[in-house]
Amino acid sequence: MNRVIYYLLRIYVWCALHLYFKKIVVNGANTIPRNGPVLFLANHQNALLDALVFAITAPRYSYFIARADVFRHNLIARLLSMLNMQPVYRVRDGIKSIPKNKQTFTWASGVLLRNECLLFFPEGNHSLLRRVRPLSKGFTRIVDEALVKNPSLDLSIIPVGINYTDHTGFRSSVSIYYGEAVNASLFTDNLSALRDVVEEKMKALTTHVENEATYHDVIRKLEQTGPDYLDPVETNRRIRLIEKGESPGRVVKKQTEKFSIRLLTYPLYWLCGLVNVVPLLAWGWTRKKITDPVFTGTIRFAVGITVVPVYYGCLLLAASYWVNGIAVLALGAFCVASLPVYHGCRPGNLSGS
């Protein structure tokens, strides 16, 4: 039953994410083993969106470990459990909760021992900074427990890089890069070396600024070159040149929005805004209550997949009393397209910013 719910939710989330993001780029998914246990280790920059992007792009049925604070509300906890998620606790969740991780790690190693897939975020926290933070020992505990119980386990570890053009913005883009598998059994006696190898591979798959002290200066210079954050290989090449004090390439001038084009799109902008007045007001009210900026994208998406379909359903139901079926279908199609169009017609967005 759980698998049925998982795949139904996966289809719904797939559709919603393809409306939320302008583009979703997947690289290397064809190299993921179709059989046997796989531990995916991904960078963590965008709260629950990271797990959802993985869930709709990985070709295999998977389980997840997520930070415990997202399980605080019973309803959300039940939904996450239906999506095969289990909590991992940190000191900030309360020192008394740390022993609960033993149960979570045993559950995680059990997933691998059943020859299934598990996603883990080994950085131990999340951040909007475009860099891979030092990896925690959590994932090595899972690997160690699985290999102790089954020394012949053919466990593949796949590093994953998730890259956003804008972490918090609607209609931004995202790329997910699956790296080459690492054979965990080669590091049975040296799990710290395994952690180092995986960390370096994750840095190659993710936009990564090595020195946190100079992070903002490096990003400022990188932005002047018009980087494609969906391509971590080219972006990291430019970053390495900047860090060496060399020129990363020519400075790209941003296009300015033409007044005539802006004037022509205003009617469409206001029409789409009027159609979506309730979801926009709901998001505006919710946004004021966000205390951690990292959750902005996740909460925006959560509002979108709950408030928006309910509102559209009510709108179409009301319209069905006044117009025929074809007109209702046309209105439904316009509703689905209206939020992306509204965002695209916003002043400042026409130039591609």
Task: Describe what you observe in this structure.
- By secondary structure, the protein is of the alpha/beta class.
- It has two domains: 2-208, Glycerol-3-phosphate (1)-acyltransferase, CATH 3.40.1130.10; 259-344, no CATH class.
- It contains twelve helices and eight strands.
- Strands 1, 2, 3, 4, 5, 6, 7 and 8 form an eight-stranded mixed beta sheet that branches.
- Strand 6 and strand 7 form a beta hairpin.
- The longest helix has 24 residues, at 296-319.
- It is globular.
- It starts with a helix and ends in a 9-residue tail after the last helix.
- The model has no long low-confidence stretch (mean pLDDT 88).
Shape: globular
Instruction: Enumerate how many helices there are, as a single number.
Output: 12
User: Would you give the CATH topology of the largest domain?
Assistant: Glycerol-3-phosphate (1)-acyltransferase
Cα distance spanning the termini: 44 Å
By CATH, the superfamily of the largest domain comes out as: Glycerol-3-phosphate (1)-acyltransferase
- Total strands: 8
Largest sheet: 8 strands, mixed
The CATH class label of the largest domain is: Alpha Beta
